[in-house]
Write a structure and sequence with these properties.
Low-confidence stretches: 72-76
CATH topology of the largest domain: Rossmann fold
Shape: globular
Strand content: 5-15%
Distance between the termini: 44 Å
Mean pLDDT: 88
Largest sheet: 5 strands, parallel
CATH superfamily of the largest domain: Glucose-6-phosphate isomerase like protein, domain 1
CATH class of the largest domain: Alpha Beta
Structural class: alpha/beta
């Protein structure tokens, strides 16, 4: 129900409302407008402007339409192409562009960039380190979950990638990075997780975390796209600074 044209027109407040609805898709249809405003937090007037922008006359009408379109999420489902494309389209909105610029500035100012992750996220971390190194930034991937963090983290920026943001080994390493004085940037599938709360800067891409009893099957395309956006943006910023 959220199309590309509407998402591109979202203000920062609209994006916060939109992200909250996606993240709380089960609870949202049963919330009052006051409850939603308190949770975000924002004003009921801002929510009504969002409702009108979406083409509905009332908040209950928006909830009914959303509930009608909501699909059951199975433990064995996959992120379909439409969901992935919708996720990527959000990255062109002012909210994400401003966030990317802020993070790119921090990365460009670092003496060293460390990328960290586990499982599939470790592969993205390794790719990120190669990508940034290729652009002339001193970077490395430290993806051993049991590796002891022992360093002076001053002027070092650590980027941690995780779908859930609640992996015990990564939380332990994040604590060590913070204790060493590093700036911590986290990239996860939502903002309601431990790593997001620990970080200095956080990017949530909001996509369904698809997993079964054994492993995660969530797409890594959004995380990969964020790395490429940050890499290009950081290089562009540094190039302009040198001119």
């Amino acid at each position: 129900m959220f199309n590309e044209k509407e998402i591109k027109s979202f203000s920062t407040t609209d994006m916060r409302i939109y992200n909250y609805i996606l993240k709380h898709s089960i609870q949202f249809p049963y919330m009052s407008i006051r409850e939603l405003a308190d949770e975000i937090p924002t004003s009921t007037a801002s929510i009504m402007r969002f409702v009108k922008k979406m083409g509905y006359d009332s908040f209950p009408e928006l909830k009914y339409a959303y509930k009608k379109e909501e699909k059951e999420v199975s433990l064995y489902m996959v992120n379909d192409l439409d969901e992935t494309i919708d996720c990527l389209k959000k990255f062109n909105t002012p909210y994400y562009q401003d966030l990317f610029k802020e993070v790119a500035y921090i990365l460009g100012d670092a003496n060293m960039i460390i990328f960290d992750g586990m499982g599939d996220s470790a592969k993205i971390a390794e790719y990120a380190a190669r990508r940034f190194s290729g652009n002339g930034f001193f970077s490395a991937a430290l993806t051993d979950p049991y590796q002891k963090v022992s360093m002076d983290g001053t002027d070092i920026v650590v980027v941690m990638l995780s779908i859930s943001g609640d992996t015990v080994e990564l939380i332990r390493k994040a604590n060590a990075y913070k204790a060493a004085g590093s700036t911590l940037i986290t990239i996860t599938a939502s903002d309601d997780n431990t790593l997001a709360k620990m970080s200095d800067y956080h990017i949530s891409y909001y996509i369904n975390d698809v997993r079964n009893e054994l492993s995660s099957h969530t797409t890594q395309v959004p995380a990969l796209s964020i790395i490429e956006i940050l890499s290009n943006m950081t290089l562009h910023m540094c190039h302009n600074t040198l001119q």
